Amino acid sequence: MHQMFKILKYSFYDLIRSRWSYVYFLFYLLLGFVLLFLNNDVSKAVITLMNIIIVLVPLIGTIFGIMYYYNSREFTELLLGQPIRRSHIFLGQYLGVAGSLTLSLVLGLGIPFLLYGLFKSNAIWDFGLLLVTGAFLTLIFTALSFNIALSHENKIKGFGYAVLLWLFMAVIYDGLFLMSLIIFEEYPLDNFSLIATMLNPIDLSRTLILLKLDISALLGYTGAVFKSFFGTQWGFLISIIMLCLWTGLPIWRLVYKAKRKDF
Amino acid sequence: MIQIKDLYKKFGRNQVLSGVDLTVQKSGIIAVLGPNGSGKTTLIKCILGMVIPNKGTLIVMDEPVKNNWRYRKQINYLPQIANFPGNLKVKELFTMIKDLRQQPDQQDDLVSLFGLKPFLNKKLSTLSGGTKQKVNIVLTFMFNSPLLILDEPTTGLDPASLIQLKKLIQVEKAKGNTILITSHIMQFVEEVADEIIYLLEGNIYFKGSVAALKSKTGEKDFEHAIAAITTNASNV
Amino acid sequence: MRPFHILLFILFTSTILYAKNIEVCSTCSAKTIKEAVANASAYDTLLIKKGVYKEFNIVIDKPLVIIGKDYPLIDGEDKGEIIRIVSDGVTIDGLYIINVGTSYTSDYAAIRVVKSENYVIQNMVLEKLFFGIYLERSNNGKVYNNKILGDAVNEYNSGNGIQLWYSHNVEVDRNIVQGVRDGIYLEFSDHITINNNKSINNLRYGLHFMFSNDDVYTNNIFENNGAGVAVMFSKRIKMVGNTFKKNWGTAAFGLLLKEITDAEISGNTFEENTIGINIEGSNRIEYRNNNFIKNGWAVKVLGACYTNTFIGNNFLYNSFDISYYSKLNDNLFEENYWSNYTGYDLDKNGIGDVPYRPVKLFSYIVNRTPETIILLRSLFMDIIDFSEKVSPVFTPDNLLDARPLMKKIQ
Fold first, then answer.
1. Any idea what the Cα angle at residue C31 is, between residues C28 and C37, rounded to 5°?
2. Quick count: other Cβ atoms within 10 Å of Cβ C351?
């Protein structure tokens, strides 16, 4: 196990020193400062941040993940010749990428909010939840992109599929979702919509944030299933469990695939 | 040391290894040769556990290769393409591999041998191809292992370094270690190899000493002997 | 005229001269309130000392002042009505009344005022009640500083906290009403002022107007009721400086307006309600300087609403600012602040250079298929809303704030 942490450490250091990690970190830092100090409105900042986290974090996770995997292929081969368990090599690299991205996100946004005196404001929970979902989305989409990269030797193809995956999860899925809701509006759709939400980690994270930001609107809906989902702690609990599953499954497949792959 | 039985490997529709049987018992320098696409690298990677065979058994250093990683403690591997994480410094790369292997090393001797001292604090991405290969070689010879696997070790080396490499190989041989080499430079192979394994179409076509090869083909020149093997094979 | 004046003077001084205090307690000469009322003459003061009085159906038929010392407990033992006032000029002050009888046929109240005037009901604490204070055809009264704490569970077998029926010119001030059906209910009652009350956790409405005109309510707090305030079939109601908070649930709203006209709604705060204001068939209403904060829908307009004006309001972080069902718009939105506004102000006059469209296409979709609410804030919806903003197809073309403010109104 501690070999995995060594790999994690080196991948992490490697990334922490790359230009892109800084760009990503600085982007969030700047965003945080602009939102808080130019606008001076925490509630508005949280809403804007939510939109960004839902869209941008998965995209960055996907692209960074796939780029890192392809760029470190030789490094991986070097490690494969060393006495290290395969799963540890890939898990270590994966956690290195996902970890450095998460750190950029949490620090980049956290510092301006700390300076702003977030802890005096009651937006702390909304904000904390934003960071937690952002972290989850990073973990999930980096894992998904590693999966794609493992299955495609061709960089261009892999990159294309990764971007497509993001586009599907972030936009197309919701379009199809909306269309099916409208087409089948005569039928009870409570369960369908909740399940459809669970099946897309972006929707899942969005719902989690909606529970904080838009609970007033959500409780306006009549369905009993919705009501128990949004009106109680169940919604929060189930969403978190599903996010954990969404993180765990791609990681499991990553290890499974890595063990069976030729290099 | 290495026992391979009935080894098959297919990439897509391309059958690369078809029933390789190979036993390496004694120490010395063994060259794995063969035309492009004959399965040299695949065979080496099977031994290293990087390629997973479709069929057959591999036992390396008395341990089965399948789902195992510990036996690699006794192997030093020099990969064909020397490319490293660009953001790491040379020094850090050495430290990292040492950290991962936790074995006694001879880094300092090798660094001065290849004149790498001025590069220790440089980032790997800024190094030239030749320098990278030197780093690669240092990494490989840093630890004392009974089995060394060198995939095209001469790529990009200047003559001086090539001489050092040959010396290093001889030192390892003198220690009683086994060295597995692939190379396209026949002169190099002839000079160092004790034994030749010639792969053709996924099978071992010839195994024996350089002298045996020459006598078998009736050629005096090693390069011609190799060429003759290939034409003979296609005539058969 | 002169003899009449003298007569009045004599009458008045004589009542003061002859008015006396009667004490009620377990060791006093008057042991029950009923007994004391029977023995008292008009304009006497009844001092009820601390203790438990198991009484109901106490009828006060002469102008008396009834004062409780240290909140004496009157326990009705669920037998029926507790106090009924049938005389003008009665004051009740500082009693603690519990266990009002519940009935499906008659509306038992802790205190009922029938066809009487100039009454004062103050500092009362009412618990375990059916109806609290019931004013029936009784004008010119004052209901001050009472605490009504019900424990109602179902609408059908619970009553209202303070109910006014055909009663005019009444002041309802500084009361706390919770856990009843309607906190305060007005039917056919005009010129009522309702100020500084707190109406929370009630089953139906915090405050409910039916067929009542020219009423004013200011500085009240309505929190976590089935719905905050319902104003129905009433005219010229002034609603100023109230807070409508956390009225959550299906068809829950801060304020419901149904068939009302010429009202003024200003300086109120609507915070975290499922619907801030729900408007149906209401015309000529002026909305000014209200704050709509974090509501599901700040304003929901359900057809047939004409010449309403929204000027100088703050719309902050609502899931939906305005929702419309019809494609026609005859209402004016101007110089409001919208936190969702993304325009710019190049000439720096504090007013955005591009108009703001407060109705999103998504709100139409949600009106049609409520389950789609789960897609709120998704990128797909944002894209659709954006395209609708650029070229409105489904939303009324003229429904816009042409002069949106760049800064929140303080």
1. 110
2. 17
Q: How many Å apart are CA C392 and CA C385, to the nearest integer?
A: 9
Enter the tokens of residue C288. 């000014």
CATH number at residue C312: 2.160.20.10
C256 CB within 8 Å of a chain A CB: no
- With an 8 Å Cβ cutoff, is B36 touching chain A? no
The domain covering B2-81+146-235 belongs, at the CATH homologous superfamily level, to P-loop containing nucleotide triphosphate hydrolases (3.40.50.300)
Q: C305-327 in b/e burial notation, b at 16+ Cβ within 10 A?
A: beebebbbbbbbbbbbbbbbeee
- Does residue C146 sit within a domain? yes
Q: Indicate the pairing of strand C253-258 with strand C275-280.
A: parallel
Range of the domain at C225: 20-390
Mutate: best of A125, A178, A232, partner C, most C CBs <10 A:
A178
Beta bridge partners of C111: C83, C133
* Mean of pLDDT values over A146-153: 93
pLDDT at C16: 54
Q: How far apart are CA A162 and CA A159, in angstroms?
A: 5
Can you tell me the distance from the alpha carbon of C281 to that of C307, in angstroms, rounded to the nearest whole number? 11
Of the listed ranges B175-179, B215-219, C85-89, the one predicted with least confidence: B215-219
Inter-CA distances, C407 with A37, B153, C54, Å: 15, 70, 61
pLDDT digits (tens, 9 = 90+) for A28-73: 999 888 888 877 777 788 888 888 889 999 999 999 999 989 988 8
The per-residue pLDDT of chain A, averaged, comes to 87
Q: Considering only CA atoms, which of B78, B14, B10, B12 is closest in space to residue B44?
A: B78
Rounded to whole angstroms, the Cα distance separating C160 from C155 reads 10
What is the count of structural domains for chain A? 1
Cross-chain residue pair C250–A222, CB shorter than 8 Å: yes
C364 within domain boundaries: yes
In a domain, C399, yes or no: no
Report the residue count for chain B. Answer: 236
Residue A83 lies in a domain: yes
- Give the nearest partner residue to A219 out of C274, C375, C379, using CB atoms: C274
- Residue by residue, DSSP assigns A82-140 as SS--HHHHHHHHHHHHHHHHHHHHHHHHHHHHHHHTGGGSTTHHHHHHHHHHHHHHHHH
Indicate the residue of C295, C369, C376 with minimum beta-carbon distance to A181.
C369
Q: Quick check: A175 and C372 CB within 8 A?
A: no
CA distance C339 to C238: 27
Taking CA atoms, what residue in A is nearest to C406? A39
Domain of residue A144, residue span = 8-260
Q: Which residues of A touch B67 (CB under 8 A)?
A: 259
- State how far the Cα of B93 lies from the Cα of A10, in Å rounded to an integer: 9
B50 and chain A in contact, CB less than 8 A: yes
Average predicted confidence (pLDDT) for chain B: 86
ipTM: 0.87
Q: Hey, is the C-beta of B71 within 8 angstroms of any chain A C-beta?
A: yes
Question: Contacts of residue B86 in chain A, CB cutoff 8 Å?
Answer: 71
Question: H or E element: which one contains C223?
Answer: strand C221-223
Task: Assess contact for A131 and A46: CB atoms under 8 A.
Answer: no
Low-confidence ranges of chain C (pLDDT < 70): 1-18
Q: Are C234 and C210 in contact (CB under 8 A)?
A: yes
Q: Report the residue of chain C nearest A172, measured CA to CA.
A: C380
